[in-house]
Amino acid sequence: xxxxxxPPPPLSAYLPALTYFTWAVxxxxxxxxxxFQAFLLPQLAxxxxxxxxxxxxxxxxxxxxAQREVAPAKTKNVVQKCLHAAILLLPLCALWPAQSIAxxxxxYQSHFAYFLPDxxxxxxxxxxxxxxxxxxxMELLQLASALEGRTVTVRGKLRKGSWQDNADFDLYxxxxxxxxxxxxxxxxxxxxxxxxxxxxxxWVEIRGRLHIEEKEGGVFRYLEAESMYTVETPPPHKQYLxxxxx
Length: 246
Fold this sequence. Notes:
Elements: H1 15-31, H2 45-67, H3 75-98, H4 105-109, E1 134-136, H5 137-142, H6 144-147, E2 151-160, E3 169-176, E4 184-191, E5 203-215, E6 218-230, E7 241-242
Parallel strand pairs: 1-2, 3-7, 4-6
Antiparallel strand pairs: 2-3, 2-5, 3-4, 5-6
Helix pairs in contact: 1-2, 1-3
């Protein structure tokens, strides 16, 4: 007597496996070419690798469990699985548009104070960068005392207007401490009498002389621009600077 073949598992049985596999693909994409750096510190990459491994493991476990499910799925169970999958996949709906958007002028204006990195930790024997070395904003602020009065070249995002009344622009980059939610702008005011300086940006390279003046209420660091021109806007995951705690 021939045995009756068991019916194939219902399609809903594979929904959990499909959900975890989708997350695994998303994590793999974030790790590829360091796309995750638009959201997180580079040092957190091992946690994403761990999450990727967990998602792949859960995918295999759920696939095996689905293959053992032979009874037709009840409507209530199908609805529950769909609801669970929707909740788990909801963050991915925001991931795709968010990865193409970097923090900019709107986020900059919402910060009442900007991040000023500590000076120090610089060896007296270490050579200072020359005027042809392109610095980022945080490097410039960290070396400000040593570079006072020198001509420097710095690259960053230019904002028309400044938090300082006697400056024309702010040159800034956001610094991530853990994730983009806690990012703070590192900023230096720029004074410029250059023609057509209003037409450059948003990302620029400025060569100018660094000045430090003591005023009532603190120290005023600013850049007196000698030349300024537009550079290619980097992708979002390359626009940030990162605070290092390790």
